[in-house]
Q: What sequence folds into this?
């Protein structure tokens, strides 16, 4: 396939996303590790096999200028975040829909994905936290129940496209793992907090716990672990916020 790459639809750190006909081409800059690009494509291919509505991958390729790209379906429609911004009076309704999509995802299995606990163990070691705090986090993580639910790892309303065909599509599977759904919920809660949406974070947590019949205290136990693991690649201002959450002693 040859692409003109004329129409930019989004820009992210180290990547630019183009639309061309029925395809989206996600182009990574030269500094982005090839292993991460191939892992993202592999994650998405494995999630495709669960039957969830997601964009299908058509190609992973190296462009003429040496950059790598992932070619996938273009899904027409607004994101759930765009709908929430446009219709603030419907926020509660959209949040219900958001949690239902997440719970449906958690009901799927993708047994070849990396394990969430393994990834978090590795990330805790990469943090700037002191040895005592890292030890406490490793111990807490080791004591958490082992589950094999499909976890997105960056589940937020911007990663849901409400398709013009009436289907809700989940996008951006670069952080996907199999593991404990409450860890995935803790990550979503922290994403709302990072965005300064404290009220939305609390509403989300309440709905997730009610709909999944999960104790709030149980999700809370994941917060320091998830915050620590997410602090590794965060922006400097996000890192400081997350590391405050990661301090197990302060948190309790």
A:
């Amino acid at each position: 396939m040859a692409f003109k790459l004329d129409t930019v639809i989004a820009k992210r750190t180290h990547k630019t996303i183009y639309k061309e006909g029925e395809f989206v081409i996600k182009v990574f800059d030269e500094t982005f590790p090839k292993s991460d690009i191939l892992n993202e494509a592999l994650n998405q291919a494995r999630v495709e096999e669960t039957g969830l509505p997601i964009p299908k991958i058509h190609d992973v390729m190296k462009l003429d200028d040496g950059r790598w790209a992932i070619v996938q379906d273009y899904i027409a429609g607004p994101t759930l975040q765009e709908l929430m911004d446009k219709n603030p009076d419907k926020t509660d309704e959209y949040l219900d829909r958001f949690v239902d999509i997440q719970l449906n995802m958690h009901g799927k299995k993708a047994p070849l994905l990396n394990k969430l606990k393994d990834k978090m163990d590795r990330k805790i070691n990469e943090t700037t936290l002191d040895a005592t705090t890292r030890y406490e986090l490793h111990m807490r993580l080791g004591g958490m129940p082992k589950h094999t639910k499909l976890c997105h790892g960056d589940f937020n309303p911007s990663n849901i496209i409400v398709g013009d065909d009436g289907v809700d599509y989940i996008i951006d599977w670069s952080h996907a793992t199999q593991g404990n759904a409450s860890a995935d919920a803790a990550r979503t809660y922290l994403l709302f907090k990072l965005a300064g949406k404290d009220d939305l974070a609390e509403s989300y947590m309440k709905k997730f716990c009610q709909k999944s019949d999960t104790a709030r205290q149980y999700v809370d136990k994941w917060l320091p672990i998830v915050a620590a693991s997410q602090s590794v690649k965060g922006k400097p201002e996000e890192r400081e916020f997350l590391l405050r959450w990661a301090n197990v002693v302060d948190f309790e």
About this structure: The chain has a mean pLDDT of 94.
